[in-house]
Amino acid sequence: MEDYQHQLLTVIGGLICFCALVKCIRFMKYVFPHTWSGLPQAFFPSLGEWAVVTGAGDGLGKAYSFELAKRGLNVVMISRTLEKLQRVAAEIEQATGQKVKVIQADFTKNSVYENIEKGLQGLEIGVLVNNVGMLHNPLPCRFLNAPDVDENLVNCNIISATKMTQIILKQMEPRQKGLILNLSSGLGTFPCPLYTMYSASKAFICTFSKALQAEYRAKGIIIQVVAPYGVSTPMTMHQKPGLITKTAEEFVSESLDYVTFGDEIFGCLAHEILVIEFDSL
């Protein structure tokens, strides 16, 4: 009996060690992304000439627009405020030499997609970043005390991702290549009280992205959900950057090195470590 218990405990211990080793090996790709799966310089342009970024006027959208232009893509920036788009577009063109096209659209309205599709006609789109999103309230509050903006939030956080994906995925599929990045949130990976609607909308993005990747992986199209925790943007009221909270530029530059690392990432090494800590609790 004692021998049996000893063998059982040995097997269990071995399995635990093996699982820990596998997690460590998988984690190393975030520590050494260029060694693990270094993307060639031509990776992003090889997908297509243009990138499309929603919510591109500031924050993460602006950072994605700049970084993708630096990596050799022309950029279509879509957002609500035309003056802001035009100003950022001029900065990107001057800094990178890439072409930039702007489309004004308020994603809380469902009437914008026909005009967006017309604006994208004739462009070879290799990358789509579904970044646009909104909070129902900048401060935590109970569901019944929140402003009555549920329809706007659903349109902006959910419908925008599905509609933009429909428009662009049907162009990517015949070419059998493309990259779609859907911005979720760490708050979408678990039920988050006091941010109920926002958390639920971002949980949709996670499930939508993973299911879509399962459908289109064989077509050569990468669909990845990016779920950051702390990033200093206007939405987060410009939290002070630090060990966990990253600037938008830092986060985007790092997360684009991880686009081949699976159907869900948290975008930077600090956030990947944070998730491991949460999982161990």
UniProtKB/TrEMBL annotation:
It is found in: Endoplasmic reticulum. Pfam families: adh_short. One of its GO terms (cellular component) is endoplasmic reticulum. GO terms for molecular function: testosterone dehydrogenase (NADP+) activity. Keywords: Lipid biosynthesis, Lipid metabolism, NADP, Oxidoreductase, Steroid biosynthesis. InterPro entries: NAD(P)-bd_dom_sf, Sc_DH/Rdtase_CS, SDR_fam, VLCFA-Steroid_DH. PROSITE patterns: ADH_SHORT. Belongs to the short-chain dehydrogenases/reductases (SDR) family. This is Testosterone 17-beta-dehydrogenase 3. The lineage of its organism: Eukaryota, Metazoa, Chordata, Craniata, Vertebrata.
